[in-house]
Each structure stands twice: as structure tokens, then as C-alpha cells.
Amino acid sequence: MDQIMATGIGKTSVRKYFYALFLSALVFAIGAENARAEKRLITLTVTDGEIDFNGVKYAGWLYNGGFPGPEIRVKEGDMVSVKIINKSAEKHGMFFHGVRVTPQVSSDEEDVQIKPGFEYTYPEFKAEPAGTHMYHCSVNMAEHLARGMFGAFIIEENQPKKPNPKAAPYKFNKEYTYILSDWNPAAESTPTHHGIGHPYNLLDLNTFTLNEKVIGSGDPAKIEAKVGDRIKIRLGNLGSLPHKIYLKQGFFVTHDDGYRLYDLKSQKSITIHSGKSNDLLIVVKKPGTYTLLHSINMPPRFRTSANVPNTHEHKGHVAKDENGGHEHGEHGDHMAHGEQIKSPEEPAHSEHAGNSEKNEDPAPVPRSEIKDPKVIPDVDATFLVDLGASTPNEDDKEYDLDPRIINFRKEVPMMDIVVTKGAK
Questions:
Q1: What is the pTM of this model?
Q2: Rounded to the nearest 10 degrees, how much is the dihedral formed by the CA atoms of 127, 333, 389, 360?
Q3: Less CB within 10 Å around the terminal CB: N or C of the chain?
């Protein structure tokens, strides 16, 4: 510094010199990052079509002519735009489930409805965060998801230039992506077919799928592997019910909604709730068949009554988050989340409660008598879910004996991983 001062260069010039050096390094770093990133235009064409569930035809909408929609796979940092061409007879839109999008894209998710015969390209956004995400239609989501309008959106994680020892537990050499869902194909031929996707019909869902395969049909998905393979299975649930996965040999859950988990421990089962995604890591150590079993993990109590006491004021059932809105990763108007439908806290005693010491369910209040505007719209009061009461009664016994619930709880083969020794 003294030598620089001796040459007659002032302090201001020195500051400018170091500032220019800093800017050059910053521009170089940004340039290097941009060199790795790519511009990606994804085009999805929506058409009217049918989904075949083992011979049962189900009317739906298809992305690029197939079900589920094609997997979108980009790299972390890529600049992505998605173009929707609507060749169907209904209006559609796009929701990027779990992806961090710009405010403009977020606004378009809510407001844009692409009419038949039109197309729309969503503004460009940066692909982040890395992980397993999904996409689906944003118009009348309950029905449109129930008619097959969804797919996987995978953002691959950038790999560090130098090996990171902490990343070793997450390494894999095989990778597969699946979307879980649930259906009632028979509903197509009933007078209530217009109610497909409505929460009132949840208990009638009787067909469960892993991508295009019907679970429990005797033809499970198959993966071939060798001893020592580390298999990553990306699983998302865009159905309405909680899907439970069981593997006797165990697995590691490495990611939740795309975010890395720590302190990994082997476990034998996981329930993937509606709108969630989880990455499973299966390390195969012995030859043989690893069979993943599937069931629907319904809660022990799923009331078909609003359970609204008529002995004191009732404020209704509210379905929104603390901020009054929703985040990506939730279904918005898709009313299948048990977590979203909460019962108000009931006082321990009521001045007018004549049966306060009895565990009797009060008579449900007719929908016309519920005045609170915060009550969930378009859902009959006789169906509002109440998981707050756990005292068994006759309704619980009847529920457990319901053939639909028995069907839900059956464990059936979903996937076989066939492991061989491999070459020595």
C-alpha cells in the first residue's frame, strides 16, 4: 500500500481498483453459473381422452397424449418456461406444485384459464429448489386432478466440484419416479359423475394407481437390481387419500417435499399424504424380491357428520392457514387434506349441555343453519370431517366394518424389486 501511495496513486483510486477487482470476480462467478444453467421451454398439449384402468374406461384429460403427464426434468438453476396448448373442450391452467416461482407466475397460476383452442406460455422462472416436485391443472383442481391432469417435476441437484463426505448417505445409482393417486372409475356411469373429485365421494374411491398401473391388480411395478445397488424412488401423492408404503427390508426417507432430511434411520413404512412427496432410498444387500406393499392409511375415526353441537354457538370449520392463504405444496381448492379441515375447540362444559357427562354425538346442524361465512364452501355439512373426537362409539364400529374401509386397509403388492447377485 505504501508503494502504491509512493507512486502518486490516491486512496480514491485504490478503492476504485479493488472495487473493480471485486466486480470482475463477481461477474466471472455469475458467468460460470449461467454457463451451467440452460434455458428450457417445456410444451404440454392438453387433449380430451380416456384412461384405461384394466379395461374400465375413465374420461379424463391427457398431457401430450398420455397419463400421467410426461416427467419434466431440469437442472437446478435452469431458466424454465412452460407452454400449455389447450386442444381439449374445457379450460385449463397450470400449478407448479412445490416449485419456487416468481410472483408473476404465482399470479398466473391463480388467474390464467386457457380456453379451448388457445395456448399460453408462463413467464420464465428459475428452477429451484432441487428435489421431487409435481405439476397439475390449476382450474377446478378437485375434479381435474381426479381426471388425471398431473405429472412429476424433477429439479436435479447441482453436484459440487469437490466430493462432499456428508453427501455419501444420499448417493444412489438407480432412480425411479412415481405418482400415487386414487379413483372411482365406476362413478363415470352413475348419475353423480359430475361430483368426481368432490370430498363427499372420498369413501367411494376404490382404485389406486402408481403412475398408470393399478395397485393390487396382480401386476405390480417391477425394478431389476443387483446386490449393492442404491435405489432412489421418488414418490408423490396427487390423490385425495393418505397412501401407506411398507417394505419388510426397510428403507431410508432422504427427502420430504424436495428438502433433504438428516439423521437418516431405516424404517419399514411411511404414509404419504395428499399433496406430499418423499424420496425413499433402498439399499439392496441380498438377492431376492423386495416387495413394497400398499394400503390406504385412513384415520381410526372419519366421521360422516358435521358433529356440530346445538347447545352452544358454533363458529364453523375453517380451512386455511395461519396467514389466510396457501403455500405451494398444498392443493388450494382440493379439499382432500385432513390437515386442512380443522374443528374449532369446543368448551369443556356448556351451560345448556344436558348430556355433558355422556359421550353422545350431537345431532348434525343442517347446512342452511350454519351462517358463518368462513365455513368451507360447497361441502355438505353432513360431510365435514372431525378428527377431534376419539371416544369410541357405535359409529366407530360401523365405520371399521364398512367394506370400503376394509378395502382401504388391505396391504397389496405395489412394486417388486428383483435383486440378483450380478457379475462377480
A1: 0.71
A2: -170
A3: C
pLDDT bracket for residue 165 (50, 70, 90): confident
> How does DSSP classify residue 149?
-
Q: Is the pLDDT score of 390 beyond 50? A: no
Name the strand (E) or helix (H) holding 259: strand 259-260
Which of 337, 357, 352, 344 has the alpha carbon at shortest distance from 306?
344
Q: Which domain holds residue 216?
A: 167-300+407-420
Which residues lie closer than 8 Å to 141 by C-beta, 6 or more apart?
95, 331, 332, 333, 334
Indicate the SS3 state at residue 138.
coil
Find the mean pLDDT for residues 118-144: 94
Q: Using DSSP, how many helices (H) and how many strands (E) does the chain show?
A: 6, 20
Flag whether 357 is in a domain.
no
Element (H, E) at 151: strand 150-156
Give the C-alpha separation, 334 to 162, whole Å: 43
What is the chain's length?
Answer: 424
Domains of the chain: total: 2
pLDDT at 321 over 50: no
**Same domain assignment for residues 118 and 259:** no
DSSP 200: G
CA–CA gap between residue 236 and residue 268 (Å, rounded):
18
- Cβ-contact 270, 307 below 8 angstroms: no
What nine digits make up the cell of 105? 407466475
Q: How many CB atoms lie within 10 A of CB 227?
A: 14
Please tell me whether residues 197 and 292 are part of one structural domain: yes
- Shared domain for 62 and 139, answered yes or no, is yes
Give the distance from CA 42 to its chain's centroid.
21
Q: What is the pLDDT of residues 259-286, one digit of tens each?
A: 999 989 999 999 999 999 999 999 999 9
Q: Which residues pair with residue 83 across a beta bridge?
A: 43, 121
CA distance linking residue 235 with residue 238, whole number of Å: 10
Beta bridge partners of 297: none
Contact 119, 41 (CB under 8 A): no
Q: How far apart are CA 82 and CA 80, in angstroms?
A: 7
Of the pLDDT bands very low, low, confident and very high (cuts 50, 70, 90), residue 369 is very low
Query: How many CA atoms does the CB half-sphere of 332 hold within 13 Å?
Result: 19
